[in-house]
UniProtKB/TrEMBL annotation:
Position of the signal peptide: none
One Pfam match: Mur_ligase_M
Function of the molecule: Functions in two distinct reactions of the de novo folate biosynthetic pathway. Catalyzes the addition of a glutamate residue to dihydropteroate (7,8-dihydropteroate or H2Pte) to form dihydrofolate (7,8-dihydrofolate monoglutamate or H2Pte-Glu). Also catalyzes successive additions of L-glutamate to tetrahydrofolate or 10-formyltetrahydrofolate or 5,10-methylenetetrahydrofolate, leading to folylpolyglutamate derivatives.
Organism from which the protein derives: Zavarzinia compransoris
Name of the protein this chain belongs to: Dihydrofolate synthase/folylpolyglutamate synthase
Length: 427
């Protein structure tokens, strides 16, 4: 355990017994810290249900290709907390992180505050004190009352596709959740909308009219169409702009990439940098192929191991479509799945009904909110998939490969928490 882990553990004890989304605790702490949120470089504020992290990854690669120094704030982390805070291109150093967390701890005292709020305050301190040209700020949960929404005047807002997730906090309908996400929209600040359902789009358009905020809407103001080995982008005065296939696999990544392109053009990034960034972006656990480590060695010769952290039905549908495309090589597919108890397991596995992969369920290790493997297997079976359980990841990978057959493609999926365990266990 690192020194910063010890501080994070102490801060967790200040967490309110019930999460009530509010900006009051955050505003109080930031005032005691001298308002670092008012001393930031230009901000791109990114919300949405799925695709936030990928869109940030593309934008960071594009801006860095243009020679800019870029801060980035993302969550959750996969293996180490430091992953959440990137300062001018590099992950925050352990010593600096510990000092910032302790400073926030002293400023907050014993007052209740959520883990995400106090760590976001530490990140904002880091961003304010380290010179940079741009800050890519990803929302943690929702938008309107998220701890990141203390930034009152971003340069650009981005909202990736919105669907049902975190219903216990954000609402039980797409419209209600879109209303929370729309909270990051600001007067006169342009907002780029990734592909949205009609229900969500109506909410965003109404909010934009109220705020007099310019909207750039995917499918209307800009489009992306797959073409050969890449895609063409039309919008912002460009017609049929030929761009390379994004570095991250899956057709849904073309949509995320196009959203990033639209935002990058609002930031006046050069076309050459935008093109370079598309092929340079990296984002772990998003349909990532693992090529070495003990879990890979648990496969029979000729097998493949992949990893994805998508955890809701919308993400599962995009993942299933990407896997269907990969299936053109004739490899049989099997899933190793672990889910958090609050997630829609039936909706998640329903997305894979057309592919009919066998499922091996695991309980996410050392995770209090993990759904038991037996419950996961039951949900997969209810969706019409053959399902079994395994005691650990290595056993699950071996069993999944055996169930699929020769040259199996095994995908570990269902949770970013599980993805983090996989990356740690696999070195």
């Amino acid at each position: 355990m690192t020194t910063s882990d010890l501080v994070l553990e102490r801060l967790t004890r200040l967490h309110p017994k019930k999460i009530d989304l509010s900006l009051g605790r955050m505003e109080r702490l930031l005032a005691r810290l001298g308002h670092p949120e008012r001393q930031l470089p230009p901000v791109v504020h990114v919300a949405g249900t799925n695709g936030k992290g990928s869109t940030v990854a593309y934008l960071r690669a594009m801006a860095e290709a243009a020679g800019l120094k870029v801060h980035a704030y993302t969550s959750p982390h996969l293996v180490r907390f430091n992953e959440r805070i990137r300062l001018a291109g590099s992950l925050i150093a352990e010593e600096a992180l510990t000092a910032l967390l302790e400073e926030c701890e002293r400023a907050n005292g014993e007052a209740p505050i959520t883990f995400f709020e106090v760590t976001t305050a530490a990140a904002l301190l880091a961003f304010a004190r380290t010179p940079a040209d741009l800050l890519l700020l990803e929302v943690g949960l929702g938008g309107r009352l998220d701890a990141t929404n203390v930034v009152t005047r971003p340069r650009v807002a981005v909202i990736t596709p919105v669907d049902l997730d975190h219903k216990e906090f954000l609402g039980s309908t797409v419209a209600a959740i879109a209303g929370e996400k729309a909270g990051i929209m600001k007067p006169d600040v342009p907002t780029v909308l990734g592909p949205q359902s009609r229900e969500a789009l109506e909410v965003f358009c109404e909010r934009a009219d109220l705020l007099d905020a310019p909207l750039l809407v995917a499918g209307a103001d800009f489009t992306a169409r797959r073409s050969g080995d890449g895609f063409t982008f039309t919008g912002a005065g460009r017609t049929g702009w030929a761009l390379p296939r994004p570095a991250l696999p899956g057709n849904h990544q073309i949509e995320n990439a196009a959203t990033a392109v639209a935002a990058a053009l609002l930031l006046d990034l050069p076309e050459a940098a935008i093109t370079a960034g598309l092929t340079a972006a990296e984002w772990p656990a998003r349909l990532q192929r693992l090529t070495r480590g003990p879990l890979v060695r648990a496969l029979p010769a000729g097998g493949e191991l992949w990893l994805d952290g998508g955890h809701n039905p919308h993400a599962a549908r995009a993942l299933a479509a990407a896997l269907e495309e990969l299936a053109a090589d004739g490899r049989p597919l099997a899933l190793v799945s672990g889910l958090i108890s609050t997630k829609d397991a039936a909706g998640y596995f329903g997305a894979f009904a057309g592919l009919q992969p066998p499922v091996v369920a695991v309980t996410i290790p050392d995770e209090a909110a993990a759904r038991p493997a037996a419950d996961i297997a039951a949900a997969a079976a209810a969706a019409g998939l053959a399902a079994e359980t395994a005691p650990d990841l290595a056993a699950a990978v071996t069993l999944a490969a055996a169930l699929a057959g020769e040259r199996a493609r095994v995908l570990i999926c269902g949770s970013l928490y599980l993805a983090g365990k996989v990356l740690a266990e696999n070195g």
